[in-house]
Here is the input.
Amino acid sequence: MNSIMNDYLFFGVLPYVSLAIFFLVTISRYRQQTFTYSSLSSQFLENKQHFWGSVPFHYGILIVLAGHLIGFLFPSWILSWNAAPVRLAFLEISGLAFGILTLVGLLVIVVRRWMNIKVRRVTTISDWLVYALLILQVSTGLAIAVHLGWGSSWFATSLAPWLWSLLHLSPEVSFIGPLPLLVKLHIINAFVLIGFFPFTRLVHVLVVPNPYLWRKTQVVRWNWDRERLRQS
Amino acid sequence: MDVRSQIGMVFHLDKCIGCHTCSVACKNVWTDREGTEYMWWNNVETKPGTGFPTRWEDQEQYKGGWVTDGEDLKLRSTGKARIIPNIFHNPAQPSLDDYYEPWTYDFQHLFDAPEGDDQPTAIPISKITGEPIEKIEAGPNWDDDLGGSPIYAANDPNMEGLTEAQRKQMLEIERVAMFYVPRICNHCLNPACVAACPSGALYKRGEDGVVLLSQERCRAWRACIPACPYKKTYFNWSTGKSEKCILCYPRLETGQAPACFHSCVGRIRYLGNVLYDMDKVREAANLPDEQLVQAQRDLILDPTDPEVIEAARRGGIPEGVIETAARSPVYKYVKEWEIALPLHVEYRTFPMLFYVPPLLPVMSETQGDVVRNSVDALFGDVEDARPPLEYLGKLFAAGNLGKLRYAIKKELAVKIWRRHVTVGDIDEEQAKRALVEADCSPEEADDIFRLTALSTFKERFVIPPAQREMAMEMLVDPQELKAAAGFGFRSAPRRS
Here is the structure.
């Protein structure tokens, strides 16, 4: 009974709390403290290890997250792709490879943050919290990939339906109940991360500069009312 | 014809004494906050020298400015496709080591030190880490006045391509040839920093062409720093935002000259707006190197031409701004007299800060133990001047020595003419011959002399009216916010 209650708390309530915090805080922070939306890059203070941390981490996490997103949005695609064992193995191995890439990058980032005194100087408590949560998240993810194989398939059959049930506002906690503790930990931590997200430097993800790709090369801003000037 | 108004600037290098008053004025007003200690929006470099940041002119390293194949103008450091890999780690970004680690001293120790046999010292303390610095390896103006010239001056990127004799001429310590180049943001017509900024935080003001960086929109993707070939955007390590020279726009909007201009002891600085044709900028930026000086001049329009005035009115430029353009000292130096040249125009950003090149005549020579002063050489052949024309040509004419020679000849002719007028030891025929050779009339020579040597504050700074009734950028007194932020935002700048 108790464990069912816990399951409901973690997989039926926590996600909503996290998402509510996420949306309310990111929006109000963007409106009131736009200045704090920054990647807070430290490349200026240390230029060499930065490459070995930032680059593998970002490519790794982007691809891993994209994999999760596709599993969530199009579970049937994944299942039909995985019908052939070779393709399943390919998906599993590449997922694991990018997961390892992420973890390696993350560890380089954390070591650099700590060892380089200049970079440590610009690292806040919220940064350390982000790193702790990310290390937990990526290492549980990797442990799942190694110990509980064929995750791409069972994600599609049990986690995607649960996520969709969340979206439909009728959480089906029973999908999660039978899953191993490692998976539960991964899910809970994911929503903890989402809840902390708007208070940390992670908000830079939300301001990726996609308009650059289609905007004009030069940017000109006018303060004058040119129409009025033309008529005067 | 799309006529725009742009604030232009002229620095007269023959008058610069390298006193750094401009730099100090700027630092006290804008960059005395945490994270900006190392920034010098205005700095004064000794040439030959490696400048700030070290060897900034070496675009193989820093990847600044534009390159063209004649049709396609591209940034050297970034582009729409390259922004994706660059955003995680920008390979061309300079680091603090390319500038210097800012420091203060532990002055308190001088008071608190226990009694001992030695005088207590104040050790340097890093302004970033707060820890003592073992060895200071670089600082502001580290190679000032050719200090450490075997390392610094000898590595000046502009020395590449000079002959062995010319290099020797530059470096021979007894015949030291040096001059100062004060540098601020050039507020370019084709700014590379603006084109590189993924967030669109950097922009050019339509009214006066001042290039600004919105602190609210900067997301620290850092693309502007490599892109600016003059390295005049700086990264604030504390707030995690880039910052740059704002040409003291709050002062300009209230009719005052920027702090560095206002404080210039040598009165080398001139400021005024010019009208230019926006439609032609792109095309001009694609021309071969040696045509760029002329191409930029051609962009600047005659503010007394009725056709230009009509087009300016159509373009929404107020009468007051057209009127100041007609009195602009910048127009005179750059267009009428053609003696002010842009710095490194080959970067293709069309910098709107122009320099009157220094003459640097040989004034005395040592013959054995005797120092012989020579007046003749003061008015001698420009080809004999130090440093070699090839060197100055790299700085101010993208290698087009014709344009440089023209400017220097005219400057020299003005000196000869005025010597004839005021001292009289040069006869009129000789002075007039010099003027004719330099394509200059006696009236023009007198005008150049007046604006160069006798001009008043109001003649040096012709500031276009800001039309503040239409709400310009700064509506709050910058001094009021100084301790909190500096400029551009209304809350305390801090990391979250």
About this structure: Chain B touches chain A through 62 residues (CB under 8 Å). The domain at 266-462 of chain B is CATH 1.10.3650.10 (nitrate reductase domain fold). Residues 185 and 232 of chain B are 6 Å apart (CA to CA).
